[in-house]
Amino acid sequence: MKAITIILLLISNLVISQNLELQPNVSVTGEGIVTVVPDKVTINVQVENKGENPKTLKQENDRIVNTVLSFIKSMDVKDSNVKTQYIRLNKNYDYQTKTYNYVANQSITIQLKDLSKYEDLMNGLLESGINRIDGVYFSSSKEKELQSEARIKAMQNAKKKAEEYATVLNQSIGKAITISEFSGNTFPGPLTRKVEMAMSSDNSGGNQQTISLGEIEIKATVNVSFILN
Fold this sequence. Notes:
Elements: H1 2-22, E1 25-36, E2 40-51, H2 54-74, E3 82-94, E4 99-112, H3 118-128, E5 132-139, H4 143-168, E6 173-186, E7 191-193, E8 216-228
């Protein structure tokens, strides 16, 4: 009995699938973009040191990290917005000197929600011992709301495209039969800097501006198939 039921279901699904394929339709891609000035930034930094004695090296790295964390706290950045990503101590072999050395590093991610503190925070991080900046990413606290707005715009764009195609053929579109979404955010390229950083506190020219926020894009892309009447 179960076998008969399964066969009937398969036949039913096949018939429905064939009907959909035979149904005249128009498939389009719609895109919706919303722009916004960022109001927060995520900064990925590291304290990294090399040496021959792993114990001494780890102690020195920990001392610098403690200084860095104390500075971040003095900037009134909440503990919940500061996160240690990883702590590593690696043993490396130098083929030129044929000796072993160690590399200790600790990665810290900081989320800053008051961009007026950005310059002071970055300069203070460098002064307190940070010697590697892996990325600076700007974003918006209203991302979810903006994503919904972008989806609506994407659907409106898809519908408009489908109507334009149908009008040329003296036809019209009916209800949507399939909808699929591909969404993502387009930000300005992350500011990245490693070791020997060009942006050092040597450029401390008072209120010198080192970034331009511009705008970020919240984007949604949808593929929609409409019945073609």
